[in-house]
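Record pair follows.
FIRST:
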Amino acid sequence: MPCEKVRGINRQNFIEQNDWNVPTIFHIESKWAKVKNNLRKPKTSDTFYVNWLSGTSPWWAYPYIVAKTINVKMGRYIHNFDEITCRIIMMDFPGRDLIHNIIMKNGLDRSVCKSQQIFFDRKDIIHIP
């Protein structure tokens, strides 16, 4: 019996940057340019932006090397620009400050976090009791 109503989010409403193939460490800047391009796209009410910060290859661009470089750049970028929202960010090895800054940049403040029982402190990344 086929489902008469389709539920969920329409996949056509997603704009994704998922270029995970970073051929060498010298191509990490190219990956970062793609991340920034996705962040700078105009925000609309019916579009979901997904940005994958991860990348890898067998030529010294291992996941932790790509993540370390891109995550630091992402942290600096969102800290310095007020006009962007981060939307949905997928990442490898994020630090607590990056996670916190992304949540704050997307408009979730501490009062909302406390009402949802999500707490930030210096010892835990995110603690949900």
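SECOND:
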Amino acid sequence: MLGVMAALTYTDRLNLGIVGKYIVEEFHLGTETMGWTLGSFSLGYALFHLPGGWLADRFGPRRVLAAALLWFSVFTAATAIAPSLPLLGWLGAAGAFMAVRFLMGLGEAAALPVGNKMLAHWLGEKERGFGTSIFLAGVGAGGIAAPIVIGWIMRHWGWRLSFLLSGIVGVLVALVWYLLVTDSPEQHPRVNAAELDRIHERTQAGTQAAYGARITGTPYGLADALRKIDPVSKKVPLDANPATAHMFLVKPFSGAGLMSLFSSHPPTEARIRALLGGIR
């Protein structure tokens, strides 16, 4: 299910780029305007990662991920009629597309963090690596399938139907997810005691690896990573957790985050990258 969800998120985020040529021609949008439209998704996506994870901790991953799937699927479908929506029509075609894509990005931002939380709940230590690879394989599958499927639909029935069908599929996936999945294996009626023992089995080495950050004093959180930044070089030293540093200090501003919002205007992008230390 998580692999399907990951594939769906990447199909939905790529579809505008695939049909962009036809939208530009129909609504007479400039190349730079279309770039800002594409980048507006990344702004919403970057902003809502932390709130999405917090909501999953607060209300449970099952409900939050179902809501996120439903949210971004509705706005994916709304992309087909964005300029004619009553609340967005006054923004003009470009503004309407930007608003819809921004709102879509808010929903998709929660998908991967909440998916990782589900993996932690449902997979034992020995299966977690393989399970995570299946989850992330959905990203590549969606990236491969999107140009083929969206392109075929667009050629036969037009670009609007590609957004509508993507949205409908997402709503169905959200419904199936909500009906079949539980927050933890203990809550699922079809998970037996032997399976629970396997999921919760942990070796002594695994325990130390999982909690080594707390045992050894190595930084393991955002606050710790921020405190370890060298005031002169502005770099995180080697004793800081590299995954934490990259996720919290680099990724939100990288090519997949906020920086992609400015990719349509290279001079602005270059200035911001220079100020942020040339991150990519």
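COMMENT: Residues 128-157 form the longest helix (30 residues).
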